[in-house]
């Protein structure tokens, strides 16, 4: 008798964000959530977003960001926290691996991208 292997849940979509075609792929692994947001058709900068276990206030957890591959710029960390914090919180405070390749990282675009990520929710 063979046992069924766990299936990796993944969902993707393509939407326009301020006139730019934006692809979103969300994949759930047992230990983290993997989200790719691209306007270039490639993975781009890879950022790890993890809940900070040192945070004493459960109602407002803090998150740490670390660029694993790509440009390590302040705006990258700001975008990553804005896009991945709610993902982690809704997925039981699991870490998020985020791939970003954005032409437009304005506040309005980031807000629209968060809504697209919610559509692709797999957790």
From TrEMBL:
Q: Name the Gene Ontology biological process terms.
A: proteasome assembly
Q: Name one GO cellular component term.
A: proteasome complex
Q: Which residues cross the membrane?
A: none
Q: Which InterPro entries match?
A: Proteasome_assmbl_chp_3 (IPR018788), Psm_Assembly_Chaperone (IPR053720)
Record keywords, A-Z? Proteasome
Q: What is this protein called?
A: Proteasome assembly chaperone 3
Source organism = Dissostichus eleginoides (Patagonian toothfish)
